[in-house]
Amino acid sequence: MRATATFLSITELLDIVFSFVPQDSLRRIVMLVCRKWFFLNRHRVSRQLSWDYKWFAEDATKALTRLPGAGRLIWRCDRYCENTWSKLVKSLNDIEKRDSMPSLTSIWRWSHNAARGDNDSKDSHSSNKYQFRIYSPLQHVELFSNYHLSSESLNLLAFPSTLTTLKIHRYSNTSLDIARILAICPHLEVLHTGSRDLLTLQGAWMSREPAPGPDLLPLRSLVLENVKLSQSWLEGLVSRTPQLKELKLINLTSPSGTTWDWSSLFLHLRSQPFALHKFHYSVHRDIPSEDDLDDMLYALCPNGLERTLWGYNLTPGIVRSLTEQPSVLTTLDVLWHHLMLCQSDGWKEGDHFYSSTSLHRLLCESPALRHLKTLKAPYLIEHMDIHRRVRVVYDSMFPESVEGREAPIFHPGVWVCRNLQVLHLQVHSHGGYDLRGIHDRQVLLGYLSRTLFSYISKVTPQLRDLHIEEPYCCSIFPGGFSFRTHLSEYLFGGLSLLSSLRYLERLRVEFNDISCDISQLSWIYSAGRTWQDKSARRAFMSKWEGQLEHEAQMEATRLQSTPVMPLSGICLDVDLQEDLGSTGLLQEVKTRLEAIDKGECECFPSLQKLSLSRELERSPERSMGSIFPMLPTKKSIWSMFRS
Ligand SMILES: *[C@@H]1O[C@H](CO)[C@@H](O)[C@H](O)[C@H]1NC(C)=O
Ligand SMILES: *[C@@H]1O[C@H](CO)[C@@H](O)[C@H](O)[C@H]1NC(C)=O
Ligand SMILES: *[C@@H]1O[C@H](CO)[C@@H](O)[C@H](O)[C@H]1NC(C)=O
């Protein structure tokens, strides 16, 4: 080593090199190399503590022992965990009081000394205490809660002054003293808060005049959803946030006696020193004129790469402007209401109707969407059914049309945004299928579910983050049966088709209820590919013979008829076209699963976080462990570094 000294032996150089390495690689690779590399990087990574009420309430106390020194806290409490709030409140209070907590610079100094092998007698005692812990100030807090956390206790939570990001999502009516938060967290840069129901923003500062002068806030991103607040208060706030880049005011309600006025807000925002990159503004029960809508979208940030709008705002004029705008659109966030009603070609919410087709055509035909990296929207699986297999299967089951129930016609297409990295869809099926008989239902659901997973895996191969959810209920027949679950977690549902997404790091699919046995999901992670599970899967697939044969016959018939070209604004390359040929087929799933089990293909090579059942995501092993609690938990080597 001495003879061939490389930069690896020069601590200062190494340190510079490591400063360019992403946190995740530091955590998973670099820090495991040796003691020196561990100490050199410890200050760069932070620990995350996440806790979900679905993971055994008695564990909350234990989890909270890891709060001191965690950089991020994500806490989700819904029902059955009222008593955990008081524990959280206490732990947060303790952090704030703990003055023995080492400062970031002293940790950094110990780390450096330890990495060099120095023995500083003054520090050695304390360095032992923290030697192998990843310690950072709490900077990021996300809380999800419903009514069990009263407004009073919410407004007493002691958020540490080190906080830079705070996100609070409520499911119920509540009020939040936002002024207090801004006062106790002077470094806050990101504040997102909202409620499913209505969140009233209140607090002493609301009524107080904002102090003039240097009393500026470092806020860069402010997102308020379903909140009640007055325009004058908001205007006072943004006058003090010169660095604001993102401002989203979603579905505002005004306190009695006041109203929101777009033109004066517009003038106010325009007179501010900041240049917004992301902006949204909508007021409950207020339908903006097309001109105002245009202003809301383009006037404040004309070159914005990101657009957020309600589904019902996708009017022909807006669709045209999105298509024709000169700048590159990288993010499209189409908002939806959690209680919208399904109609054959779209949704209805109050007086608003919106068609699923305008977004669909935009995605398939507009070259302006080619550079899209992030898409969030409600969407119909029928639009992905390139070969109309679901329809054909349904018609073969029920040759007679059901009286009074018209089956809508869709024109499936291929998205132009082939480089999408983040995709969050609320998926619906409005094909008008009447489902009787358990077996037929399963066959049809299988086709729907496979169509979705197969389409995504082929059309958007660059995905990093995929989140699929289903609506609470979805039926296009008023008063009819409720047809809710389209997606199946069973082998035949085709989740395995997603495993070819080689860059996928986060996968969240909100299956309604997981009732299959473990072998139908354990192909996901390597420890689950035991010979017992593989043979169980083979046994399941051997029962598919009949359906596979039927499928082959239908394919033969289809190939004889004239193909219907999918909608597309780009020339489909031959490979993709051929690939899409098998979308929805059971045979495709069988082939994929066999290849996974034989080790012939990679299966989710980059996956780090998984959630399949409406809970916070965790490592694939732990997430499977919470679905199937009998699973022995195998600790991976780096489990000590993560939550
Ligand atoms: C560090 O201190 C310990 C005891 O305090 C001693 O045994 C060791 O030799 C010292 N190491 C160096 C590099 O000075
Ligand atoms: C929430 O508050 C609003 C207005 O204050 C009220 O109309 C609504 O009924 C409340 N909802 C619940 C569930 O309490
Ligand atoms: C908007 O907020 C109101 C409460 O003020 C709520 O009743 C309504 O459902 C919200 N609408 C949407 C689309 O979220």
Structural key phrases:
643 residues; alpha/beta; Monooxygenase; Leucine-rich repeat, LRR (right-handed beta-alpha superhelix); 3 domains; seven-stranded parallel sheet; 22 helices; 19 strands; 33% helix; globular; binds 2-acetamido-2-deoxy-beta-D-glucopyranose
Describe the structure.
The protein is α/β, with parallel strands linked by helices. It has three domains: 7-40, Monooxygenase, CATH 1.20.1280; 164-304, Leucine-rich repeat, LRR (right-handed beta-alpha superhelix); 307-401 and 409-561 and 584-614, no CATH class. Helices cover 33% and strands 17% of the residues. Helix 10 links the parallel strand 6 and strand 7. Helix 3 (35-41) runs antiparallel to helix 6 (104-116). The radius of gyration is 27 Å and the shape is globular. Residues 210-214 and 632-643 have low confidence and may be disordered. The structure holds 2-acetamido-2-deoxy-beta-D-glucopyranose (NAG) (3 copies). One 2-acetamido-2-deoxy-beta-D-glucopyranose binds at residues 117, 119. One 2-acetamido-2-deoxy-beta-D-glucopyranose binds at residues 173, 197-198.
Brief summary:
This protein is of the alpha/beta class. The protein has 22 helices and 19 strands. It is globular.
Give me the secondary-structure category: alpha/beta
Distance between the termini: 37 Å
Shape summary: globular
Strand runs, count:
19
Bound molecule kinds, no repeats: 2-acetamido-2-deoxy-beta-D-glucopyranose
- Total helical segments: 22
Tally of domains: 3
- Tell me the fraction of residues in β-strands, as a range: 15-25%
Query: If you compute it from the alpha carbons, what radius of gyration comes out, rounded to the nearest whole angstrom?
Result: 27 Å
Taking all residues together, what is the mean pLDDT?
83
- In the predicted model, the low-confidence regions spanning at least 5 consecutive residues are 210-214, 632-643
Helix fraction, binned, reads 25-40%
Main beta sheet, described?
9 strands, parallel
